[in-house]
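user: can you give me the structure for this one chain? tokens are fine.
assistant: on it. calling the predictor now.
[tool input]
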Amino acid sequence: MKRKILVVVLSFILTSFIVFSLSSSIEGNAGYALLGDDASDEALSAVEDVLGINRPFPIRYLSFLYSFFTLSWGRTIDGELVFDAISNSFHVTLALSMSSFLIALSIGVLFSLLDSSVKRPRFIFTVSYAFFSSIPSFVLAIVFVIAGVSLGYKVPSFQVDGLDALSIPSLVLGILLSFQISRNISFHMRKERSSFYNTGMVSRGLGDLGISIALLKPAIYSSLPVIVESFATLLSGSAVMEGMFSLPGIGSLVVSAALRRDVPLLSTILMLVSLAISVLYILVDVLSGVLDRRRGDAR
């Protein structure tokens, strides 16, 4: 476990170095982004002094890490505190991710029950897994919007309808993620079905659906690491949905910061995402260890 944590920490340090290096390559043009292309050399030099661009690379990197962990994230090019800018957008991304995850879990469990209850043919489930694992989220979102408009459904706007505008993005992300969860749960359910544990169930007169329901709990336990890990995929997926539906979340903030060369905002968001994914992977390892010990005690 300690070795895995060390690997995650080293990966985070490497990620932070890459983020800082890329940010530094953008910083050279930050003066033009603030002052315009006609800015004088004296004005550009003054801006670089304020931003600290002229300091040695190692000093700037260590200062970057120190500022990140002490929450001294500086200000955006508009003068707003980076902490405030992220805080104002975080609740949108969190609401989108949580609602998508709940939808994914609900559909995934239901589909797993149907999949494990049907012996033959399973062609429809195999095709569904393949299709929804390969289709891009923005394509499915377009299909939903076109279908909704054709049926007279008004696509909600965040500026007018608030969090109600998350309905279609949450449904799209939830459906795509549900088949990843369902495939893993179904695998564990079929694996448990073939064990000696099911002999007693059959003797009690349980049918295929009854056995599947009984096996659902241990299958979910076995799939917990994958379920938690899949939550990390929502971070990238939510960025696409936020851009498509003009949601003021973290994803939209990243795109805006990149286009405007807002280095403090962009680098801080990338670091936070990297840290969140690292924490999730540690949580997955902890869950895997706990579940392995529980299986060993059960035997």
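assistant: here you go. The CA atoms of residues 188 and 236 lie 27 Å apart. The chain has two domains: 1-72+263-299, 82-261.
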